[in-house]
UniProtKB/TrEMBL annotation:
GO molecular function: glyoxylate reductase (NADPH) activity; hydroxypyruvate reductase [NAD(P)H] activity; NAD binding
Record domain D-isomer specific 2-hydroxyacid dehydrogenase NAD-binding: where: 110-288
Alphabetical keyword list: NAD, Oxidoreductase
Protein's UniProt keywords contain Oxidoreductase: yes
GO CC term, one of those recorded: cytosol
Domain D-isomer specific 2-hydroxyacid dehydrogenase catalytic: start-end pairs: 5-319
Name of the protein in question: Lactate dehydrogenase-like 2-hydroxyacid dehydrogenase
Record-stated family: Belongs to the D-isomer specific 2-hydroxyacid dehydrogenase family.
Taxonomy, superkingdom: Bacteria
Length: 320
């Protein structure tokens, strides 16, 4: 009997082709995310489920699928949507998609950094509003990056790729993280590890690249924002709940930090309305990995993980 593979939302055809070699593929083609009840219904009888970052994967979902379930392949590097212990203790393999989205996410981070420090979105809004303007020396001044300090929270693959790009812009790099980076990485990036508190006090731009965990939820809260310089910017391309959005909106409104650029939101896809009224905020809709090449590579990696597990082989990028 063919193994049943359920994909919770449309994925690039290249990934479907890989999955077809491994079993009978059912792709859910609805417009939005499946509700928890729809998700439970969709996975019934599945041997493999390919999930998106908005799908909640927990004990209940695994039970709904049934005892034949072998693998859940999340098409994302982050897996905060998966209750990993609950899934793995039921004998189901969990995989994610590290590595393949590092460059795209780092590129987007630099894009956001430039947008917020050079007021690009604000300038665009001005022109689109057909407002009058003329060039003058004091017009719409932003903040330069050369000689400024970038504070990276979480020096994993993406954090390192951001650091490399920032160095090319003439920035100094400091970082904070659970572990000291390897000496050669620190040497290449000229990066110094600091306690979070000190990083917040010294960085001109704070960029978040940590996973969302119980330890990092609201890591950037009112106190953290108060520790930042009034001239500093916050960039978040990690996960929304790492930042207390209400506290951020308040800090931005009161000019306690200079600006923020956000790719992710606390209650995604909802955006804290208070943020949308502020000119010193740049918001984009979770586009970190959104290139044709990267999304294809992510979906293909997830599909190859499924194929490996269903063939009785080791998964390529398991989460443990
Ligand atoms: C995207 O946000 C991812 O975790 O891959
Ligand atoms: C993220 O940091 C990765 O290694 O993909």
């Amino acid at each position: 009997m063919d193994k049943r593979i359920v994909v919770t939302r449309t994925v690039p055809e290249a990934a479907v082709a890989v999955l077809r070699e491994a079993g009978s593929v059912h792709v859910c083609t609805q417009d939005g995310p499946l509700s928890p009840a729809e998700l439970r219904e969709a996975v019934r009888g599945a041997h493999a489920v390919v999930t998106m970052l908005h799908d909640r994967v927990d004990a209940e979902l695994v039970e709904a699928a049934g005892p034949q379930l072998e693998v859940v392949a999340n098409v994302a590097v982050g897996y905060d949507n998966v209750d990993v212990p609950a899934v793995t203790e039921r004998g189901v393999v969990v995989t994610n998609t590290p590595g393949v989205l590092v460059d795209a996410t780092a590129d987007l981070t630099l894009g956001l950094l430039l947008m917020v420090t050079r007021r690009l979105a604000e300038g665009e809004r001005l022109l689109r509003a057909r407002e009058p303007w003329t060039f003058h020396l004091g017009f719409m001044l932003g903040s330069g990056l050369q000689g400024k300090t970038l504070g990276i929270v979480g020096l994993g693959g993406i954090g390192q790729a951001v650091a490399r790009r920032a160095r090319a812009f003439g920035m100094d790099v400091v970082y904070t993280g659970r572990r000291q980076a390897p000496a050669e990485v620190e040497a290449e990036l000229g990066a110094r590890r600091l306690p979070l508190e000190e990083l917040l006090r010294t960085a001109d731009v704070v960029s978040l690249h940590c996973p969302l965990t119980e330890q990092t939820r609201h890591l950037i809260d009112r106190d953290a924002l108060a520790a930042m310089k009034p001239t500093a910017y916050l960039v978040n391309t990690s996960r929304g709940p790492v930042v207390d959005e209400k506290a951020l909106a308040e800090a931005l409104r009161e000019g306690r930090i200079a600006g923020a650029a956000l790719d992710v939101f606390e209650r995604e896809p909802e955006v804290e309305p208070a943020l949308l009224d502020l000119d010193n905020v740049v918001v984009v809709p979770h586009l970190g990995s959104a290139t044709v090449e990267t999304r294809t590579a992510m979906a293909e990696l997830a599909a190859r993980n499924v194929a490996a597990v269903l063939a009785g082989e080791e998964p390529i990028t398991p989460v443990r």
